[in-house]
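Hi all, long-time lurker, first post. I run a small reading group and we've been trying to get comfortable going from sequence to structure in the token notation. Rather than ask abstract questions, I figured I'd post a concrete chain and ask someone more experienced to write out its structure so we can walk through it together at our next meeting. Sequence below, copied exactly:
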Amino acid sequence: MDIVTRTLPASFAKKRLVLPLSWEDGNLEIVCYDPEDRELQQDVERACQARTFISVAPRRDIERIISEFFDFKQSIAAAENVLKIPTADISNLEQYVRLAAPDLASSDKYIQKAVDHLFQYALDQRASDIHIEPKRTQSWIRLRIDGILHTIYRLPRVVHEPICTRIKTMSRLDIAEKRRPQDGRLKVAWKEDEAEVRISTIPVAFGEKLVLRLQSADILFSDLNKLGFSDRDFQIYKKLIKSRHGIVLVTGPTGSGKSTTLYSTLRHLSSPDFNIITVEDPIEMVCEEFNQIAVQPHIEVTFASILRNILRQDPDIVMIGEIRDRETARYAIQAALTGHLVFSTLHTNDAVSAITRLKDLGLDSYLIASTLVGIVAQRLVRMVCKSCGKPVTIPADQLRAFGYQTSEPAQAKKGIGCTCCRNTGYWGRIGIYEVLSASDKIKEMIHFEESEEAIKKQAFKDGMMTLKHDALRKLLAGITTMEEIIGVTSS
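-- Answer (accepted) --
Happy to help. Here is the structure in token form:
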């Protein structure tokens, strides 16, 4: 799409929100959001000396493409022109940088602009991660959007290290250290959005790879009623978190939204009447309403060592980022036994298997039974794009295969792909949940070490909805697709 940057000046395109699409035989096709803007058409014809034809696209799509092609790519191109040397001479870019320090300094403003535009673009696109990956002759920039990686640009190889150096400088990492992994963090703001950024560097075959995790406060501190709980599960969960003491567990694989659920819960409970302490590795989002403690294993500040001393801080609510070992589990149970409400996470496939996991960590069944308040298992599913979602029919045999007993097909929705959703058919994600409330009967069964299957049957009698049932409910409501719920619930 070189025509985008060659045909019209960046200032004109940004001011008038117009993009050239094609130019052939003196005819120029342009795209804008207002097809009635005849003055714009005349101005473009005067500027380009061509006959113009208008196509229409949503305003936000035009803004996105302008940002991608004019801001980021022009900054990269300018930096490349300053730094450009033959590819064969870049076997050791660190050495080159030392030899060409004046040239590198003159490119700093372009590198800074490129990094700034990269952050702005990632926030605009709702990206959760930015990957900057060195390859043999170029570098890839990829964004993870709604759980899926999208390649947005391939950098000239010569620009890779200056960009990495700029990001490492911003996050106060050692720019000379390229042989060992490093971790850092910074905060970025764009328009009304603000995000904590966690940076991870690691050496790979062709240089240093960076992954930047973007944590937006708007997402991490979502309203509880917007996370995706069904009405019934939401009422049960609110009852669980209002307990005065005990332990509430949130389970699921990495990237299933556990941190969002916990942070949103703590924000919901936050009050001047409560002392809330969190123990995290690392701190996902700094929030002045909580007293947050970061695990630092290199100085022997671990989950267990913090929990040994945390009860002297007079907490009402304690959030432990993850129960990973027997000692951490023991201190979490101790805190719950001594009158504190404890929240934590585990990596299990469903709610009931979290009980088995606690036993595997060495906890006695009677301690689990006496402290457990409830367990929430969760996953994230992508939602059908509202701009391109169309009705579809789900055959009865597919529904039955998924556990829904019916002889009739059902109506759902599926996105056909558009510019809003990058032709994926999905826009945004929502949680699916399995909420187990530890009733007296379930506690009795845990105490007498009954099987997972028996406890699960009792939970069903108590009204628990499984992950599959909640996913199916969202499918029939037109929120997600059959392919998506099969993918996330297959385990």
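A couple of things your group might point at:
The chain has a mean pLDDT of 87.
The chain has three domains: 2-57, 62-216, 221-489.
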